[in-house]
């Protein structure tokens, strides 16, 4: 009798354990850690990344039958805080993937943590990715490469007959990336760069730098800053009598730049992801259908129109994650090292994924998944960005 009771008890415990395991498996969730800059000097674009992520989550909040939990943190535009946020999300929140952030320095910091702790990272800011020492990098970049962003706009300068250009940009990694991109094009016959003036993201004046740029007598000026701060060089140069054209990168595509730049910003041409001018694109453009869907959801969730490119990077980052997660779920359960590896492998296997910015193709040899199809040129006309075929 005692033996029978023991057997029944053992059977009951086994059954309960099985049911518990089944319930846990059925209720498993994929945890996504998202970092952006909701405060600090990068907030004017960080809030746009946040709005894009809200639209992305509204677009699809589950994959392969698994619910997605989105955990969001603010890095305050500080690379040190971005590092701490990345570690917290991985080590405490046990996220399966990281997405972020709003500035190049902070994005680079997050990439280092993801690579160290072996958790996939999807960068939504332009970042220079160094070849991995261990033969496997735990991250990819959504945006067009800085070199490509600059190439497209410098090529436009050359087509307009411009032989030389002044340069003024941030005194950080983003400023370096834009300057290096412009210098790299000199050998291809594109405009010669006549100056290399820099300013900090927190500076409120660039008078000295503007005077040095003008002293080189450039035909045009390339702005290597972003968001609100990108308006400073334009305002100061116009104030000092410079009458030539301005050019820039997608980092200038936001309302604060237009508002602060005012008349000085009118006519500036920048390279841009096609999502910025979705309505102006031809119907057969790869971005037209998904871009239109993105704008509809963005308006519904955020109560306004998406006039920038930053929110689109978040959305495309989400599309990349969704495509990879669906495949990874066939190989492992969320929350495990095996799932992290499967997810990273699946990201590198993505081919011809149409997003609002680009058609993405990743590989083990390249963490950048875009080509020149991902960029158009737009011009600021009467305070609105106009497609320049």
UniProtKB/TrEMBL annotation:
The region annotated as signal peptide is: 1-25
The lineage's top-level taxon is Bacteria
**Any one GO BP annotation for this protein:** amino acid transport
Q: Which InterPro entries match?
A: BCAA_transport, Leu-bd, Peripla_BP_I
Q: Keywords in alphabetical order, please.
A: Amino-acid transport, Signal, Transport
Q: What Pfam families does UniProt report for this protein, alphabetically?
A: Peripla_BP_6
> What are the Leucine-binding protein domain coordinates in residue numbering?
29-363
- Family designation: Belongs to the leucine-binding protein family.
- What PANTHER family does the entry give? BLR7848 PROTEIN, LEUCINE-SPECIFIC-BINDING PROTEIN
Q: What is this protein called?
A: ABC transporter substrate-binding protein
Upper taxonomic classification of the species? Answer: Bacteria, Pseudomonadati, Pseudomonadota, Alphaproteobacteria, Hyphomicrobiales
């Amino acid at each position: 009798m005692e033996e029978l009771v023991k057997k029944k008890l053992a059977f009951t415990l086994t059954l309960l354990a099985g049911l518990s395991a089944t319930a846990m498996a059925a209720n498993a969730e994929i945890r996504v850690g998202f970092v952006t800059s909701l405060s600090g000097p990068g907030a004017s674009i960080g809030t746009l990344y946040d709005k894009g992520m809200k639209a992305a989550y509204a677009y699809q909040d589950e994959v392969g039958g698994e619910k997605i939990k989105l955990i969001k943190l603010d890095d305050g535009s500080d690379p040190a805080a971005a590092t701490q946020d990345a570690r917290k999300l991985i080590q405490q929140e046990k996220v399966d993937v990281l997405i972020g952030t709003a500035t190049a320095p902070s994005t680079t910091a997050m990439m280092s943590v993801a690579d160290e702790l072996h958790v996939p990272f999807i960068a939504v800011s332009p970042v220079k990715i160094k070849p991995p020492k261990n033969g496997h990098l735990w991250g990819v970049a959504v945006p067009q490469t800085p070199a490509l962003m600059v190439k497209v706009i410098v090529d436009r300068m050359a087509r307009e007959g411009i032989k030389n250009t002044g340069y003024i940009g941030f005194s950080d990694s983003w400023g370096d990336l834009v300057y290096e991109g412009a210098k790299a094009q000199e050998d291809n016959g594109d405009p010669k760069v006549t100056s290399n003036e820099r300013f900090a993201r927190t500076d409120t004046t660039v008078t000295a730098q503007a005077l040095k740029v003008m002293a080189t007598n450039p035909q045009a000026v390339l702005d290597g800053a972003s968001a609100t701060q990108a308006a400073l060089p334009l305002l100061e140069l116009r104030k000092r009598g410079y009458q030539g054209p301005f050019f820039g990168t997608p980092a200038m595509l936001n309302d604060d730049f237009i508002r602060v730049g005012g008349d000085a910003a009118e006519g500036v041409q920048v390279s841009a992801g096609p999502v910025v001018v979705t309505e102006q694109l031809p119907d057969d453009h790869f971005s037209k259908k998904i871009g239109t869907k993105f704008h509809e959801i963005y308006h519904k969730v955020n109560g306004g129109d998406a006039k920038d490119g930053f929110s689109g990077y978040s959305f495309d980052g989400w599309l990349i994650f969704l495509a990879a997660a669906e495949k990874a779920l066939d190989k492992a359960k969320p929350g495990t090292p095996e799932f992290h590896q499967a997810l990273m492998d699946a990201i590198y296997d993505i081919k011809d994924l149409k997003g609002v910015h680009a058609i993405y193709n990743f590989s083990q040899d390249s963490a950048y998944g875009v080509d020149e199809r991902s960029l158009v040129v737009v011009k600021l006309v009467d305070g609105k960005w106009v497609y320049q075929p």
